[in-house]
Amino acid sequence: MTAGPNGTPENDDPFAYLYRGEGEQGAGQGTAGQPGVPRTSYNQVSRVGERRPSVPGGYGYPPQAPQPQPGGQGPAAPGGRAASRQAAGAAQGGGPNRKGLLIGAIAVVAAVVVGISVAALSSGDDEDKQADDPAATAPADPGGEDPDNKAADGDDKGKDKKDAKKFKTLTAFANSLRLDGGATASTEHAGASGPNGAYVDHMNVVGASATWTFDVPEAGPYTFYIGYGNAGETATPTLTVNGTAQDRKINMDNFRKTDDWSQAWTETYSFVNLNKGTNTLKISCEDGDKCGFNLDKVWLKQGHIEK
After folding, report:
1. How far apart are alpha carbons 187 and 198 in whole angstroms?
2. pTM (two decimals)
3. Beta strand residue intervals within the chain, DSSP E
């Protein structure tokens, strides 16, 4: 066989030099496959299960000598300028981007704090605006209902509820009531609470009466108070509620225990149940009643209230 131009025998395995061990000779060749030149292979074939240390210089090539740097400097550090900068940063106590990452983290935290502060201030402003603007906190009209809560029959329920909350006491002086059957206004005895000391006298005549007509916002129990004067025996007139005489008489005792009619002014009460709207209460002297009293004033409170 004759050697080819690359030193391998012709008509032989052209890759035999790759797995031929050091010191082995090819046909018609020296130790390294070239006459007179010892072979030095850096990528020899290893047996199965055997590891060889890696050889610097790359696959099939001898290692390269480090190149001197211009200006008398030593060989360049592996990795070039980027590696030099990384090494300088490591020498200063951190990586090349450590300072930049720290600044970025601080900026993110500051942005989050600012965002939370702005959201809190905005929420506070909205709450203040709602507190200042009653319309902003008013509930929406559900289902298109009448904002005044008016019923189909025209009753103003909203107004009634408002009046019921405001209702405390209705008061009327006796001389302003409708007087019938001989009852008349008088100022003979002092101490009455009516205008100029007026009160109603001559209630001791059968058929004498004083009728009070008034309105209440809602039906239910009420307490009917009566101011009167009695310096004699206990009086027991009749109370009529909306046209119905009550079985229980009004108790008008001489609570002052006096015979001076100017010092006998006191009060009593009766429980009544009234209708929503207009009602009438009548105090009268009926057959069998004792009616020796003077009538000073009347007033009404919602609910049954024990004195």
Report:
1. 5
2. 0.49
3. 169-173, 178-180, 184-186, 199-201, 209-216, 220-229, 238-241, 244-245, 265-274, 277-284, 294-302
